[in-house]
Amino acid sequence: MTPSGPLLPAVDRAAFATALAARLREHGVSVGLTGTRDFVDALAAAPPRTRTSLYWTARVTLVRDRPDLARFDDVFDAVFGQSVLALDPNARRNGRSAGANGEDSAGADSSGGDPVGGSGLPWVTLPPAVDSAEHRENRALTTMPERLPSELAAAVDTPFGELDAEQAELLGRWLEARLRDWPVRRTRRHTVRASGHRVAIRETVARARRTGWEPVRLVRSGPVDRPRRVVVLCDVSRSMQAQAVAYLHLMRALVLTTHAEVFAFATSLTRLTTVLAHRSAQEAFGEATERVADRFGGTRIAHCLGTLLTSHHGGTLRGAVVLIASDGWDGDPPHQLATAMARLRRRAHTVIWLNPRAAAPGFAPRTTTMTAALPYVDLLLPADSFGALLRVPGEIARFSR
Description:
By secondary structure, the chain is α/β, with parallel strands linked by helices. About 40% of the residues lie in helices and about 10% in strands. The protein has helices at about 15-25, 35-45, 50-60, 70-80, 90, 135, 150-155, 165-180, 200-210, 245-260, 275, 280-290, 300-310, 335-345, 370-375, 385-400; strands spanning about 185-190, 200, 220-225, 230-235, 260-265, 270, 320-325, 350-355, 380. The strands form 2 sheets. Strands 6-5-4-7-8-9 form a 6-stranded mixed sheet. Helix 1 (about 15-25) packs across helix 2, helix 2 packs antiparallel against helix 3 (about 50-60) and helix 8 (about 165-180) packs parallel to helix 16. It is globular.
């Protein structure tokens, strides 16, 4: 059957087209910048859902001369050489058979080998997360995981407690680059926008001055979208000592990219927004260490949440995405935490809990405090390693959409 989803999910179209054009030029096919741009535009206008449609999209836009057809077919088969493409043999003029009813015959081995020396295409993909092996088997065409710096390639699944200072710093810089796509909220302000549904009276009248005060063309406006406010509360108690540095990097990245309000808590609440906004990460973390006097001690989550809700910073929670990074161990009674979480849930837009223990196989919230908090949590995410933390921004953006 023809797959219902796109053939190349989460693929950077420009990088994919550039890599394919470079491979074609290496083997004698004259592909110019115009053809590459046409290929990118065609992929955006009609994303291919089968290998057949991808073949014809690439052939129509990239191949200009008839003598280049055979070399194009060889390169295309080498790139997608894991299966035989069900193409019209009369159109290709090379006798290759098509599948039944014109569908792709996925799963058949290619008999042509690799005539161009090396299969596969070095495209660049930008998936929201690295899929599991079970999920990849159901894909029509597997996407490559996002490339990481060589220093961090081996630290993707390493627990935070085993990362050194240099790897943790690279983690912070990488998080700053990944936090560009963040949920937005619609404001009451309007701006000129071609796709807007409201007529901008002032701009339309100003434009009508050029046409004898006849409004020949209406100027439309739409609401302005702004990044949704972010509030982060990070547990720095004894049980979270191994994850504290990594979570501080996450908090600093959120402060620098989304202007978030960040707090650290153990037995009391400490605001670190102005501290972590420092240009130097070392100085920011050094000052944060001095400010949090109760770090690596006990935990009072309910008390700290109540302190934030009753303080003058409690207004920042309204309509915000609230991240709580904690393992759920709490010294306060569970009913106090449930009361504080209920108040927080009514005020916030989304409540997300990052739990480093949630990545363990067969995880279940067995602590009474975590059980009391979960009914008021919109999303529970594991955050025990570098790879899990990198998936957090994409999960939040997808959930908010």
